[in-house]
Amino acid sequence: MNENMITQDDTQMPDGYGIHVVLTRMGHYCGYVSIPKSHPFHGKDYGEVEQLDVHGGLTFSGNCFGDTGWAFGFDCAHVGDNRDNCDAAYVHNQCLELLEQLRIRA
Asked: Would you state the pLDDT for residue 12?
């Protein structure tokens, strides 16, 4: 994890998925869902996977959470985003929706 991010939520699921909500030092939240190594999207760039419906679209893919697997992420740094309408609870819920989409495609 980047030293410019402060973890707000780091939830590991028993099936190898994880939810990660971070607050950047610039003041906006980002959400990530890590997937197990067995997932067909593991190791793929976010531009290579079919479109997943999440706030602002996917903006990240990579292994930034140690051995928990590959992660796909999004940010809340778009025009109109702020910590009032894109708070930690909102990002967590977006992560849950992304998680379900990724599980369906496993």
From this structure: 85
Residue of 44 and 7 predicted with greater confidence: 44
What does the pLDDT read at residue 19?
93
Burial code (b: 16+ CB inside 10 Å, e: under 16) for 63-77 equals: ebbeebbbbbbbbbb
Q: In the structure, what pLDDT confidence band is assigned to residue 26 with cuts at 50, 70 and 90?
A: confident
- Counting other chains too, the contacts that 36-42 makes at CB distance below 8 Å and 24 or more residues apart are 36/69, 37/69, 37/70, 38/106, 39/69, 39/70, 39/102, 39/105, 39/106, 40/105, 40/106, 41/70, 41/72, 41/102, 41/105, 42/69, 42/70
Task: Work out how many domains the chain is built from and give that number.
Answer: 1
* Measured distance CA(76)–CA(80) in Å, rounded: 9
Cβ-contact 88, 76 below 8 angstroms: no
Average pLDDT in the 52-75 region? 86
